[in-house]
Amino acid sequence: MAVLAACTEQEGPCPYVRIPPSVASVTKFNGPVDAKNVIYQARIADVALKCTYSETKRVNVSGAPTDDMEVLLKVRVAASAGPKAVGNTVEGRYFVAVADVRDVILDRQEFPLRLQLGQGGRSVVTEEEAWMLFRLKGRTGAAFRIYTGFQLSTEEADFNRKQLGN
Predict the structure, then answer these.
(1) Most exposed: 29, 59, 66, 139, by fewest CB within 10 Å?
(2) What is the pTM of this model?
(3) Per-residue pLDDT of the chain (166 residues; tens, 9 = 90+)
(4) Structural domain boundaries of the chain?
């Protein structure tokens, strides 16, 4: 059992962040893929990170300190209602994946997204927060990559690929 003995915090390099174009946006349809059937469109406009490093000395078998990094992600999402929107609230999901520098996925989490579309133009920009803890094991945040995007259905992914010309 580990017991917290001391902790120091400092700033350090954050992981590289990427929003792959194929999952950077989502278009939800009600019916066939056609502009008149759009419920809403959303895109991840930006991701900001704040990284805090800490060295925690734990009482355990080895007695060795552990070094951790806490990452607070702020994912900015821009969305607009389409002609088939009903009400002011739309829901979706986005993911955050952590990889090493070889792009081997180490962790992946999904988060719910609930957007309150405004009146009039019915567009909104919102900021979602996600928190992650990294066990650094002597490395820095530069040893990791963070990928974020929308969790898409097969049809939504196909639509995005066609929009990107793939």
Answers:
(1) 59
(2) 0.81
(3) 333 333 334 567 899 999 999 999 999 999 888 889 999 999 999 999 999 888 654 444 555 556 888 899 999 999 998 888 888 888 899 999 999 989 999 999 999 998 888 665 578 888 989 888 888 888 888 899 999 999 999 999 999 999 888 6
(4) 4-164
